[in-house]
Amino acid sequence: GGNGRRTVHVTNIWKGDSLFRDAVCSAALGQLVAEIAGWDGARVLQDQVFLKPGFGGPVAFHRDEAYMGEDVVTCWIALDDCSPRDGTLEYVPGSHLWPGQG
């Protein structure tokens, strides 16, 4: 777990934790992703968990396409209650149509 002073990053936690596996591999989530993307189905590439301290600056604006490619859908699921004051995820409508890497 986090020690409260630094961000801890864990990748593919679903492979070792049944609670995360049930969420990440949920048929309902897969169907929703496929429907939004216009695909016949969807598969899990990876999950990432960030344990962040309750202080610090914002994450800079970015596009996941620069890291993951155009044929990947990313999904942010908050594990704690959040408000915009806490620094929740924001998006720019239509930004998926912008050219180039962001």
UniProtKB/TrEMBL annotation:
GO MF, any single term: oxidoreductase activity
Source organism, top-level taxon: Eukaryota
InterPro entries found in the cross-reference section: Phytyl_CoA_dOase-like
SUPFAM superfamilies, per database record: Clavaminate synthase-like (SSF51197)
Cofactor(s) in the UniProt record: Fe cation
PANTHER family: ECTOINE DIOXYGENASE, PHYTANOYL-COA DIOXYGENASE DOMAIN CONTAINING 1
Protein name: Phytanoyl-CoA dioxygenase
Source organism: Oxyrrhis marina (Dinoflagellate)
